[in-house]
Amino acid sequence: MTTRKTTKRTPAVAGVLLAAGGGRRLGGRPKALLTHRGRPLVEHAVRVLREGGCERVHVVLGARADEVRARAALPGCVLVGNPDWEEGMGTSLRAGLDSLAGTGAAAALVSLVDQPGIGPEAVARVLGAYEDEESLVSAAYDGMRGHPVLFGAAHWAGIAATATGDQGARAYLKEREPGIRLVECGDVARPFDIDTEADLAHLE
Asked: Which positions fall inside the MobA-like NTP transferase domain (predicted)?
C-alpha cells in the first residue's frame, strides 16, 4: 500500500507572490505572462505556493496588470495592484505586506514569479520552519540566502520602512542575519532567475 505524502499547511502564513516586474531585459515582456508549461508563469508560481502548503496567496501585479488578470487563471488569489512597480521590487514587497493587514496572517512567505526552478518542496521546508510572528526564515542554497523567505508579522513594519528600489528586504535581513533561520533547499530546488533572453531556455 502506498502512503501519500501530505504537505503541512499553516493557515497563519500567507503566500505573497511578487509578480509585478515589466521584464525590461526581456524586451518589456512582463515576467508574469511568460509561458511555462503552456500557461502564464504566474499560474505556475501560484501553484507552487499552494502545493507547498500556502492556503492563502496574495499576488502583487504591476506591468500590464489588466492583461495578467485577463489571461491568467488565478482563482482564490487576492490580486494586489502596485501602481509604483517601475520603482523596483521594494514597492511590490511593501504592497504585498500591506495587503495582509487585517487578514489575521501571522507571517508572509514571499516568493518571486521569475524563479520556476524553486518548487513546492522548498516552499514546504521554509513554511515548516515557521514558529510565530517573530520568525525570520530563508531558503538557503549551499549556505547562501535565497527565496522563498518567511517574514513574521513583527517584522513587516521594519521591512516596509527599508524596502526601496530593487533591494526588497535585503538591508533589513542583513542587519538581523544572526536571527535568520536558514533552511537548506539546494537539493530540491534551483534558484535561477528569468532575467535575460538566454534565461528563457529554463522555461518549458
From this structure: 15-176
